[in-house]
Amino acid sequence: MPESSSWLAHQWVVAGIVSSTARFIPVPFVDDIVRDQCRRFVVSRTLSAHNRSDLLGDLKPYYSNSGGCLTGCLGLLAKAPLKILLFPLRKIVAMVTSIRGVPLEIMRTVLLGRTLDRYLQQDHVTLDSANANRMRLAFEDTFAHMDFRVLRAALADALSSVNGWKSAAITVATRVAGQKEASEEDLQSDPKVDSGAERVSEVLERPETLELFAEFDRRFDSALEQLG
Length: 228
Fold this sequence. Notes:
This protein is mainly alpha-helical. The chain has helices at 6-20, 30-49, 60-63, 69-96, 98-120, 129-144, 149-160, 165-177, 184-187, 191-204, 207-226.
């Protein structure tokens, strides 16, 4: 993706691949933890590339599924019994829908980083917790209304050509789940994950993909403007 360095784009893709395999880990709550860790990693690396790591805390509403400490903990406790009860069913559904879900999670993670990267290039934009929340709402609305079917199929096809990427990514995801923060080394220590990321990046650099992402940008900007 020409808007950002190939190094940074690779970080997004690796995080997306690792996040997408969280659905295969047979432990309650781990999938949510891995996704949050990977999205935090994407935002952290993007901010670091712009020398704005000081904004990581302010941007938590943008990348995290939980709110503040008290709200997040209380919400987790309230939902825990139901999530544990439904865990076997959720895992079956996650595995059955993995052909669709894995590429979508990769796209979501990449677009999360790409959108932030694009905004950090605009000097007039204020990035604080309030604006981060609006960005998250605009992002979710835009992502839900995009037609990613062609790209989804292309990503699935790209990954199918890499032997062992899934088991390698699951191993990385399991390790990430046990870390307080997902570091670059945690996400890039396996050659098969990197190989998968290279194949995915090739698809993301195609003209038709860049056109699709440009459409995402336009819709996101419109949604964000409507939120004030």
